[in-house]
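User: Hey, my collaborator sent me this sequence without any context and asked if I could get a structure. I don't really work with proteins. Can you help?
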Amino acid sequence: MPRVATARNARRGQGASFEPMSTKGRKLDIVSWCLYDFANSAYPTLIVTVAYSVYFKNIVAGGVENSDFLWGISLSAAMLITSLLAPPLSTVADRSGSRKRLLLIFAGVCVTATLLLSLVKAGMVLAGMILFIIATIGFEGSLIFYNAFLPEIATPANQGRISGWGWGVGYLGGLLCLVLVKPFLDGGFSPENLPLFRASFAAVAIFYAVFTLPLVLWLREARTPAPLQANGGAVPSADGLGLLSNAAAAFRTLWETFRVLRRSGGALRFLFAFFLYNDGIVTVISFSSIYAVSTLGFSMGETLQLFIAVQISAGAGALALGYLADAWGERRTILLTLANWCIVVIAAYFTETKGVFFAVSILAGFSLGSCQAASRSLMARFIPPGGATQTYAFYGLCGKMSSVMGPLVFGAVSWATGSQRVAILSILVFFLAGGGLLWSVREPAEEAEGSSPLLP
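Assistant: No problem. I've predicted the 3D structure and written it out in structure-token form, which is a compact way to encode the shape of the chain:
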């Protein structure tokens, strides 16, 4: 066993013996990890998709012609900033054992900014965009470190299941929060209901904070810093998390991770494929509620019923296909979901009635969490030793950069053509291109040592 710095002495740059802590067999680690998905799913469900997106378009921006484009800019800016922050943060986390601390910092940023969204009123476009961007940076940034815990709490044989559990439990969390705030949203945008509508944003922040507590209390981090070749073997300073003094070393270390991934067969090809098809998924999530209300005339009450059904189908899909990913392989499972996404986009373009769109949305929900859960699990198979957070930073970087492009494409096409139908059809190219590239990816050989004793 190599000698590395202890958590305490590492921060001082002193070498000492360190006993790594295994988390793979602990129920509390798995439960608390999944419950963070339960907590944070309230944000994409209510803020990004169902409530704040429509509130921003119709109330904050006043339903002006370019409101779709403004919403797309907000999403893209948040993803771009997160992409720039991810490399140095992930490297510092891997080399200093600070994943959990950074996860909680970003989660706190999201909770605080989401709470402040409840103060945004009609005409406060800039404030509404800035607070949403900050909240989304917090949410997306926390996922970099959250995803990197997967290889610690799972074995290669069961990580598909556990990843699926996380997504499935997450959709249950989003569903519960949606049901809890439904009374605040049922009145729509009538003047007397607007204060209640805004209060739902504060309720999301409280929900997120409360259900993050199990992770704070129970999830243990295996504080085994990655090999410290870069920066002369020095451990990043605790001051300011070492971001300023170690930024250059962080990008150098990340470049080394890139070179390792390039030698691992299909890793980079998978990441490029993920870049493409995730673009489609993020765009559908971000504009689905706006599409339902603006194009098909859904009322707020009907939109809530729609997304309650979608949350249920998404949770069921993530749980069911998590087992399929372990049995059949993550790549094949993702390809199956991408075929379904193509059907969904084409059907949405031709849909004229609310009932048909309701059915199409449930079909989309089944592939929503399952595709992302299988992608997260497949990424875990390409991780080089000691580079979990850095590898997931690449994974997150592809996701964030793709999320820059998709919303801008949808917003620009909608603005240029005056048709959200044409805009939704334009997303088809991302699923086709991503699926075509993924088809050529070779899954790494499984080296499972057997399932965790906690799992079948």
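In plain terms: The CA atoms of residues 8 and 170 lie 33 Å apart. You can pass these tokens on to your collaborator as they are.
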